[in-house]
Write a structure and sequence with these properties.
Shape: globular
CATH topology: Rossmann fold
Number of strands: 9
Structural class: alpha/beta
Largest sheet: 9 strands, mixed
Number of domains: 1
Low-confidence stretches: 9-36, 303-341
Strand content: 15-25%
CATH architecture: 3-Layer(aba) Sandwich
Mean pLDDT: 81
Strand order of the largest sheet: 1-2-4-3-5-6-7-8-9
CATH superfamily: Alpha/Beta hydrolase fold, catalytic domain
Length: about 350
């Protein structure tokens, strides 16, 4: 989730500005900014958080070869204008009514083709996968995305999936920023079989507070809040929260707090050595075990685990009690090894 790097740099600049001026001068400047530039402040945050583009990460676009293009047309209630989403479908026709389908919601910066490797890994775990680009990304309608528009896009994609696969169990998956969008979607629908979030946070304000300059009072100025922590209590199906222990962008404690706030059957999986970007890869065996335990998914008969995963460190599904925080030492910030790749 490269928006964290951008957000950190942007707020760090504001931090330096505030330190270099008197309190009165800083307050005056901020009042002037809010009085005459709220629109600019909002637009800048949307740019920092989403970083919309038509780029894919590394050689990931090559891994999208063979996937089917999907086009989702709807009228936006936000703009009153027609909107179009581009997506990728992997999996062909479901083999039976038991074959699960997955709506994949990606994070910031890269287009849907950039998620092709993770899509393929989820397909190996037994899902047919629909991944979409929000408006402003890739081949979807142009424009600067916002929290509201991304939510609307997710709902449109979910409606498309439900209309075409009404008999299949349907799951929501979100990576990083997409996890917050996915939790919002899960809180608004009642036909999902489960929700999976990876490398996700509680809120943008909490992400900002986790930085070394997080003591600064930025909260009131955040317009794109992504308050997943307040939405997760409203979801009605089981929740799987996955986080890399070595995630240097989103602290694993935020993923754990998100898990703690959920009231449905749930599981928290901590992937040792997993970064913000590769927990899905090296934690494939842990994913497989969690899907079987929490969602009662059957293991695909021809698939084997990929990557060097370690034994699952997970809080058991409710109603069994979760382990005490002291038992999960890798969650403590001073025990987080490595850095994101």
């Amino acid at each position: 989730m490269d928006f964290v790097v951008e957000l950190s740099g942007s707020f760090a600049c504001l931090s330096a500005f505030m330190k270099s001026w008197s309190l009165f001068a800083s307050a005056t400047a901020l009042v002037a900014l809010l009085a005459g530039g709220c629109s600019t402040l909002d637009e800048r945050q949307r740019e920092w958080i989403f970083q919309p583009s038509d780029r894919s990460w590394g050689n990931s676009e090559a891994m999208s070869q063979g996937m089917d293009d999907v086009w989702i047309d709807f009228k936006s209630s936000l703009t009153g204008e027609p909107a179009r989403l581009h997506g990728l479908w992997l999996g062909g026709a479901p083999e039976s009514a038991d074959t699960p389908v997955l709506l994949y919601l990606h994070g910031a910066r890269y287009n849907v083709a950039g998620s092709a490797p993770r899509m393929r890994r989820m397909h190996e775990l037994g899902f047919s996968v629909l991944a979409i680009d929000y408006r402003g990304f890739g081949k979807s309608s142009k424009g600067l995305p916002s929290e509201d528009s991304a939510r609307e896009d997710a709902r449109a994609a979910w409606a498309w999936l439900a209309a075409r696969h009404p008999k299949q169990p349907r799951y929501i998956f979100g990576h990083s920023l997409g996890g917050a969008i996915g939790i919002d979607l899960a809180s608004r629908v009642n036909d999902e079989s489960g929700t999976i979030v990876e490398s996700t946070f509680t809120s943008i304000a909490d992400v900002a507070s986790s930085f070394k300059w997080g003591w600064l009072p930025f909260g009131p100025f955040i317009t794109q809040r992504f308050e997943a922590i307040s939405k997760v209590k409203d979801i009605g199906a089981p929740l799987l929260v996955v986080h890399g222990a070595a995630d240097s962008l989103i602290n694993p404690t935020l993923g754990r707090k998100l898990y703690d706030a959920a009231t449905v059957p749930k599981m928290f999986v901590l992937v040792e050595g997993g970064s913000h970007h590769n927990a899905n890869s090296i934690g494939q065996a842990q994913y497989r075990a969690a899907l079987s335990q929490l969602f009662r998914m059957k293991e695909p008969p021809t698939e084997t685990a990929t990557g060097g995963a370690t034994p699952t460190q997970a809080a058991p599904a409710a109603p069994l009690p979760a382990p005490a925080p002291s038992e999960t030492t890798a969650l403590r910030p001073n025990h987080l090894p490595g850095q994101a790749i």
